[in-house]
Design brief:
The chain is mainly β. It has a single domain, classed as Immunoglobulin-like (Sandwich). It is built from one helix and eight strands, in the order αββββββββ. The chain has a four-stranded antiparallel sheet, with no helix packed on it. Strand 7 and strand 8 form a beta hairpin. 25% of the residues are buried.
């Protein structure tokens, strides 16, 4: 017997919800071994990238069962390009358990021509509501190729 609407389960997994005001920034190359890029404790919303490692991830706590999801609302396309999105479920296997909305990015060659500072803005909202929702700003600093 065939299950009806199998694609709906997949659609529910890609939405997100804010569970806490924390997030992780990690190097995409190191994502396989779960290594996190170290950011100064004084500014945990900042990621520093170099030409040697231009890819990075932003991981935001999320829970698709609430209807909320993270939207990438603004970034400088001259310096940063989004390269992907995925939702990672929690290992508890419990219905309604939170997970992570994971956005991947890559800095462009222009970002390393000189040192740059830019932002990536996210909004957390339900698609059917007009409220602006939670805002999250990630600060990105690049170093010049040397």
């Amino acid at each position: 017997m065939r299950k009806p609407y199998p694609y709906l389960a997949g659609l529910l997994l890609i939405t997100g919800s804010l569970q806490a005001a924390t997030f992780e920034i990690s190097n995409a190359a190191a994502a396989q071994d779960q290594t996190q890029v170290q950011t100064p404790a004084s500014n945990p919303n900042t990621v520093y990238i170099s030409a040697d490692h231009p890819q990075f991830l932003v991981q935001l706590p999320s829970n698709p069962t609430t209807g909320y999801q993270w939207y990438l609302t603004e970034y400088d396309a001259r310096l940063i390009q989004p390269t992907g999105f995925r939702y990672q479920t929690d290992n508890t296997r419990l219905v309604g358990a939170p997970g992570l909305a994971i956005f991947s990015f890559k800095a462009t060659d222009v970002a390393f021509a000189a040192p740059h500072a830019t932002t990536i803005n996210f909004a957390y909202s339900r698609p059917w509501e007009n409220a602006p929702g939670e805002q999250k700003v990630i600060y990105v600093t690049t170093s010049a190729k040397g």
